[in-house]
Amino acid sequence: MASAYNIIGEVGVKVNKVSLTWVANLSLVLIGIVGNVMGPVMPEVIQEYGLSLTTAGIVFTAQGLGRLVAVFSTSSWSDRVGRKPVMRLGGIFMVIGAIGYGLSPMWVGHILSAIVIGAGSGMLDGASNALVSELHTEKRGLALNRLHVFFGIGSLFGPLVAAFFLGVVQSWRLLFVAVALLAGIHAIFAASQSYPQATGQKGAGKAELAKVRKAVLASPEFWLLSGIMFTYSGMGGIIVGWVNTYLSQELTATVLAASSVLALYNVGLTLGRMVWGGVSERLGYPKTLLICSSGGLVFVTSAVIARQFWWIAGSFWLTGFFVAGLFPTAVACGTGIFSELTGTVTGYMITFASLGGMLLPLLVGAFSDAAGLGLGMMAAPLFGIIQLILAAILLGRQGKRDISAKAGM
Question: How many independent structural domains does the chain possess?
Fold first, then answer.
């Protein structure tokens, strides 16, 4: 294990890379579970409170808003003070939010709890991605895709656990109490570790950090990558948030059958990230993003226009497989360009991802109240087209600036 201790931590001791990598891995498992239980329970929540689709969609917006504010406000902070305070605070927020969502007797309480859950998820997500980026500098694409395999694992178990609590325990509220317990266990483990020194802890001044931040915001590559993150998260939010309700309404699918489709999508995410990490290191990050965007567009379009249940299930599985590489590969590309501020770059990019996840499910819900959810789901391929265009432009700029994995990112 000697090779695991080769980074100096914030308290002057050597950091255990293996343990910290597992802190990040389990953070993504938790985020995946939390992000994939709200959709399956939504039909029950709608029935209990008598909500319209527009009103129900507010909870996804609230979760995205909490995530957006938290990740934006804590990203630069983590570069100054380190990842540990962000990890610790994120864990506390997850516990409080999950308990509140499970026990609140009023719809407004669920909305407020969703904001807190989103904030906790954003903190853990930003800190975990930045942490893995600085622990594994030689092969960021591979390391980050492996990290997001664990998000896929959490996303896979989320709908299945939700189905168990809905069908066997018959209590969606107890589901969130169980999630709070898992979040508390993880928070204790994360707080017990020593973390690498952040840029600010190494002596960099505020002026120096501000200069790098300005360079980030002036970079066309940053904006292209952020656009890919926005559309990826928006497409995922539409699928995770509405596929259960869509299948229930349009195809009269059972809760178990609809949850199984969402689980297949997340199986695709998990398997894809096992593949795209290695591909990104061989082909380069921009080319990998273009391939993933192309495949995602083809199969999400197939999923929302098909009427046969087996065809829809297979198409969502393949959608997950292809889009799996987008988030981690985009983060690897961005943090490779601006390795001085991995927390800030990661945080800014996840902020755009949060915007997509916050806005698009709500817009689909509002539009679907008037035009039907079948037509509303067409928003997913629409944003897939935009994503593909951004990835193509990024690849075209590769010759102007070295942003490939082969250059030693």
Answer: 1
| d(C-alpha 270, C-alpha 158), whole Å | 13
pLDDT digits (tens, 9 = 90+) for 159-178: 788 888 887 887 889 999 99
The Cα–Cα gap between 224 and 228 comes to: 6
Q: Is residue 406 part of a domain?
A: no
User: With contact defined as beta carbons under 8 Å apart, do 61 and 69 qualify?
Assistant: no
Task: State which residues form the domain around 64.
Answer: 15-192+206-396
What is the value of pTM for the model shown?
Answer: 0.77
Chain segment 351-406, per-residue pLDDT in tens: 898 788 777 877 888 888 878 887 888 888 999 999 999 999 999 987 555 555 44
Is 320 within the bounds of a domain? yes
3-state DSSP call for residue 9? strand
Which among 353, 360, 22, 338 has a CA at the least distance from the CA of 199? Answer: 338
Domain harbouring 357, CATH code = 1.20.1250.20
In a domain, 365, yes or no: yes
Alpha helices in 251-402 (DSSP H): 255-283, 285-305, 309-323, 326-337, 342-371, 373-376, 379-396
Residue 104, C-beta contacts closer than 8 angstroms, at least 6 positions apart = 110, 112, 113
- Domain contains 383: yes
